[in-house]
Design goal:
The structure is a homodimer of 189-residue chains.
Chain A (H helix, E strand, L loop, with lengths): L1 H8 L6 H9 L2 E5 L4 E3 L7 E7 L2 E6 L5 E7 L4 E2 L2 H6 L6 E4 L3 E7 H10 L3 H20 L1 H4 L2 H11 L9 H8 L3 H11 L1
Antiparallel strand pairs in A: 1-8, 2-7, 3-6, 3-8, 4-5, 4-7
Helix pairs in contact in A: 8-9
Chain A binds a DNA duplex (30 and 30 nucleotides) through helix 9.
DNA sequence: ATCGCTTTTTACCAATTGGTAAATATTTTC
DNA sequence: GAAAATATTTACCAATTGGTAAAAAGCGAT
């Protein structure tokens, strides 16, 4: 629980009562590698805070290829927040890439926190904004660089991820085939 | 002014007094093609609402190449809002790609609106969030598609932009050279 | 240890994209 | 309108990346 509290308090102040109220709503769950936290076509019913493990968001392009949109690791919220907030169907899958442990909030509890804890909406908005900006900053350089540069900046940005996730996911994140990525790895060493 | 008011009211309700207060702070300015609205290394001092014309945000990568990050056209706010909000130096240039006409708010006036008009902060947050999400949705497909597909989806998403902006900007937006884009255009017709 | 399954590597060749340079078209300026 | 500046197209060849297929390596279950 400490991880969650520390994370939240980076974005705003809350008193002990408020913190207890929030953490009282959280449930610890575990998901096995490959399991989906939320799925495209379904309305996300939970927000999760990652304690252990890695998730990826992925979708399918018009050729039917599976594209990894981004990765999330420890101390991040995992959800399509826009869709969760609006009770709308998600367009992407959130899949556990490793065995994972997380704290989850149901939509009902989350709304109750929003209606109870003054300032919670602002904290959530800040967190969400930060996540969006990070996504842009991580994805944008991928457009204008060659594949080797993209891979190098990937392992720079996610040094603790590269050994935990399949090469094929990294390749689809970088927009190349896994064969190309394998070749790039070989050339680097 | 009507364009600005219509745009704002999409995101929340305001009464006539509030609207007058906000529009009273706006100044109309014109920028010539090529002029910068804000520059990397400088603290953005204004927010602008585009009435006419197109802007692009661009930066330089580590090879010194100029990369067009995204385009903005009519009825959008032009600013690095995160940096504007925080009085921090911008990391990108906001450049007029055509002659442009816009309504601008100074930082001082903008803060005054925030402190005066109840609900303005929420409207701004919504607008900003929408812009961030749009940026992600437009940029993400650029990573995993080939150059022709990227160009086709660009002209689909920005049908009214393609004839107004130089090919070289589009090329750097798509992450290819202008020669490649020229060749792609030729193959398409 | 062995089998079956998945992941990663390698190889071959085709297709795409980049680099450089020059030719053509278009726009600006006087 | 002519000259200058800028933007776009074309061409050539090199480098990168993709497609397909097969081999090798890693992993889990029995």
């Amino acid at each position: 629980m400490k991880e969650l509290v520390d994370y939240i308090l980076q974005f705003g102040d809350l008193n002990k009562h408020q913190i207890d109220f929030i953490t009282g709503k959280a449930t610890m769950i575990e998901l096995q590698k490959g399991a989906y936290f939320s799925e495209a076509g379904k309305i996300p019913t939970q927000v999760g805070f990652i304690l252990e493990g890695v998730f990826r968001f992925c979708y399918y392009n018009n050729k039917g290829e599976e594209i990894t949109h981004f990765f999330l690791d420890e101390n991040n919220f995992v959800t399509d927040y826009q869709k969760f907030e609006a009770n709308a169907v998600a367009s992407e899958y959130a899949q556990a890439v490793t065995d994972t442990k997380l704290l989850v909030f149901s939509k009902k509890d989350w709304d109750e926190i929003l209606n109870t804890v003054i300032g919670w909406d602002k904290i959530v908005a800040k967190i969400y904004k930060k996540c969006l900006i990070e996504t842009i900053e991580r994805r944008s350089p991928l457009v204008s660089e060659d594949a080797t540069t993209r891979y190098l900046s990937f392992i720079e940005k996610f040094p603790n991820l590269v050994n935990r996730i399949p090469l094929s996911y990294v390749a689809s994140y970088l927009g190349i085939t896994q064969q190309s990525l394998s070749r790039i790895r070989k050339n680097i060493r």
